[in-house]
Design a protein that fits this description.
The chain is mostly helical. The chain has 5 helices and no strands. Helix 3 packs across helix 4. The N and C termini lie far apart (74 Å).
């Protein structure tokens, strides 16, 4: 009778990680941990970038994404709980799209202006 064994992905990763660490001596473990830390905190150039740009480290990117997710949640709550915020935001978006339709993100000005307006509005400057 064949044995049918099933291990979920998270458990398999943990087993493999434990096996790798058990097979490496202390110096090897220290070097591996140091390399992982350096990777997480070092800015990097993406291989697909032809402009030689430096991008945030993986840790910075994770932080930025977490802040964006939280900001979206807060803005969604404002819009859903205060009809005036939703109406004002829709009106401002209509105004911005009308004036900036020809250069949406061409030079980033639309995104910067919209972000600045949303931040000012949500921080209490309701007359913007």
């Amino acid at each position: 009778m064949p044995l049918n064994l099933s291990i979920d992905e998270e458990t398999m990763r943990a087993l493999i990680g434990d096996a790798i660490l058990a097979s490496i001596d202390v110096d090897g473990r220290n070097a591996l941990i140091q390399a992982a830390i350096n990777y997480l905190v070092s800015p990097r150039k993406r291989p697909d970038s032809w402009r030689n740009e430096v991008y945030p480290s993986p840790l910075e990117e994770a932080f930025i994404q977490a802040v964006e997710v939280y900001a979206r949640t807060v803005v969604r709550e404002y819009i859903e709980t205060d009809p005036q915020v939703g109406e004002t935001l829709r009106a401002k978006l209509g105004e911005l799209f009308g004036g900036y339709r020809h250069k949406l993100d061409e030079d980033g000005s639309f995104s910067r202006e919209l972000n600045a307006w949303v931040i000012a509005y949500l921080s209490g400057a309701h007359d913007v």
